[in-house]
């Protein structure tokens, strides 16, 4: 877990913290989330974070955690199939595991998709042995709170370090939330229709 903690040092400059965060997210993805195989090609570890065959990330994914540290507001744009949502997931998990009391809100187009994202992250907290072995001792043992001491749902869950993830529809009421980090992911997506470029540009201009 130390590689994921380096960026939290207050002795680093902002650019050093951004570089450390990028390295930490890359290491976290490789060690905790990526399927691994022995020399014979047999699977020895698979936390089931990724669906389907695993593919290497685009180098551009490293720009997202770097921007997360350097800028209060940032917008990441990529083509369909760029795995933007997975990129957010592998940022969210280190954030809530390494920083006590860090609240993250994730908003996307529909409530169903919020539960898919929240469930993917929650599964890692509950069942990933490497995450529990390395980060559990940092916060006194178990990462999952005891019954009644914190939320533990698909779209909203807390950890024993008082960090947590809250997932909501982009069309839901947003006022009243006070997260440290807020992600807005594909708010205009609708599987029933094709979104015109005019609408996409208009939404992007409003957001930026």
Q: What class, by secondary structure content?
A: alpha/beta
Instruction: Compute the CA-based radius of gyration.
Output: 17 Å
N-to-C span? 34 Å
Name the strands of the widest sheet in spatial order.
4-5-3-6
H-E order: HHEEHHEHHEEEH
Instruction: Give a quick account of the main beta sheet: strands, pairing sense, barrel closure.
Output: 4 strands, mixed
* Averaged pLDDT: 87
Overall helicity = 25-40%
The beta-strand count equals 6
Number of helices: 7
Strand content: 5-15%
**Which residues form runs of ≥5 with pLDDT under 50?**
none
Using the alpha-carbon principal axes, give the shape.
Answer: globular
Would you give an account of this structure?
This protein is an alpha/beta fold and 208 residues long. It has seven helices and six strands. The chain has helices spanning 2-5, 14-33, 63-70, 84-98, 111-127, 129-135, 197-207; strands spanning 36-37, 43-45, 103-108, 156-158, 164-169, 181-184. Strands 4-5-3-6 form a four-stranded mixed sheet, covered by helices on one side. Strands 1-2 form a two-stranded antiparallel sheet. A hairpin with a 5-residue loop joins β4 and β5 (164-169). It starts with a helix and ends with a helix. The mean pLDDT is 87.
């Amino acid at each position: 877990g130390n590689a994921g903690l380096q960026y939290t040092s207050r002795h680093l400059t902002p650019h050093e913290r951004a570089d450390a965060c990028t390295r930490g997210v890359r290491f976290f993805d490789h060690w905790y989330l990526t399927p691994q195989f022995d020399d014979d090609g047999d699977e020895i570890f698979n936390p089931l974070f990724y669906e389907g065959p695993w593919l290497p990330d685009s180098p551009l994914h490293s720009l997202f955690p770097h921007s997360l540290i350097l800028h209060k507001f940032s917008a990441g744009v990529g083509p369909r199939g760029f795995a933007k949502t997975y990129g957010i997931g592998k940022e969210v998990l280190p954030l809530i595991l390494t920083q006590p009391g860090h609240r993250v809100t994730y908003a996307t187009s529909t409530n169903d998709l919020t539960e898919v994202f929240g469930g993917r992250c929650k599964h890692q907290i509950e069942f990933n042995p490497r995450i529990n072995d390395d980060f559990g001792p940092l916060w006194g043992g178990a990462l999952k709170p005891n019954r009644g001491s914190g939320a533990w749902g698909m779209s909203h869950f807390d950890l024993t370090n008082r960090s947590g993830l809250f997932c909501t529809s982009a069309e839901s009421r947003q006022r009243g939330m006070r997260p440290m980090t807020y992600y807005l992911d594909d708010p205009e997506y609708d599987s029933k229709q094709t979104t015109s470029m005019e609408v996409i540009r208009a939404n992007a201009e409003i957001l930026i």
